[in-house]
Amino acid sequence: MEPILNVTGLKKTFKLSAKQQKIEKTNEKVKTAVNNLSFTAYRGEVFGLLGSNGAGKTTTLRMLATLIKPDEGDAIVDGASIVNHPELVRTKIGFLTSELKLEEFFTPNYLYDFFSELHGVPAKEAAERKQSYFERFGIDKFAEVKVGNLSTGMKQKVSLVVSLVHDPDIIIFDEPTNGLDVLTAKVVTDFLQDLKEKGKTIIVSTHIFSLIEKICDRVGMIINGRMVACDTLEAICAGKTLEERFFEIYEEKVGTIDEK
Predict the structure, then answer these.
(1) How high is the pLDDT of residue 257?
(2) Would you place residue 71 in the very low, low, confident or very high pLDDT band (cuts 50, 70, 90)?
(3) For a FRET experiment, which of 32, 58, 81, 85 has its CA 20 to 30 Å from that of 182?
(4) CATH 3.40.640.10 describes domain 3-93+169-259
(5) Quick check: 139 and 161 in contact, CB under 8 A?
């Protein structure tokens, strides 16, 4: 398999305010969100980052998407460094987070065209891709409806297609089904599998075991900002369910991690 993403020794810390220290019941003034994280993703696979809320998944993906800079380490995204060449990295990836808030005044049509122009997508190519995406996700019926008047599921679908206007080879999804109803979640997961069949590399973070089991080829388990296991589902599970293995590994590792 051909590596397309190499993550090496990523570390990210954040300063804690007095209020945050009180909430987290700590005297530490700095929180280490990601600590010496390394993994490799291969072309054409779905790689899952699995962990509880606060484990460091979102911070990791934000570093990979060049939204924040790592304190230490680097990641090479299809030959481009997130530290040295963030602008080039952004041309190679699509990034979608459940926290993405589209401007509610604009319509799906306007937003798709705006981001297509921003990425320099030729007009004819953009129009053909928009028609395909809008028809597949049922956005065509709401193309001229302001985002503020769309349902939560439709907003997520619009966010999804907007993140893919430039047809990137690497797609990073942070909690892609978070907050979605079961029907919309199925539409999204089915689409991820279609993207994989087209040779795209997908990095997805989630705390949902069934999502990892359904779509991922390999999984990295993150606990307290550290990668504690990384392999194929078959190798990690060893005949058990992913949930069973996660909590076994958690019990084995979390004490050691907390001590450091």
Answers:
(1) 46
(2) very high
(3) 58
(4) no
(5) yes
